[in-house]
Amino acid sequence: xxxxxxxxxxxxxxxxxxxxxxxxxxxxxxxxxxxxxxxxxxxxxxxxxxxxxxxxxxxxxxxxxxxxxxxxxxxxxxxxxxxxxxxxxxxxxxxxxxxxxxxxxxxxx
Length: 109
Fold this sequence. Notes:
109 residues, alpha+beta, Trna Endonuclease, Chain: A, domain 1, five-stranded mixed β-sheet
């Protein structure tokens, strides 16, 4: 997928292409999954969205940025904690070598 599209496109392009490829491999793929935020047992009127949720187990956060910042790592760890998921993958598609843009994150291991 990355070799076909290359770097520099919008995140939404990569989310949709990645979802397409994962669905072709018979995985359960959910896009833009709502992730509510609770404060003192009260659901707040805002929330976040998980880019991709695979088999209801793996969270994928897609980026297309010049460089991954510390806040991007913190974001996916927070999403993992809020969703009670254990495994997340942060992918930055705006790199010359996709292997340098993939980060595995774990929650509570």
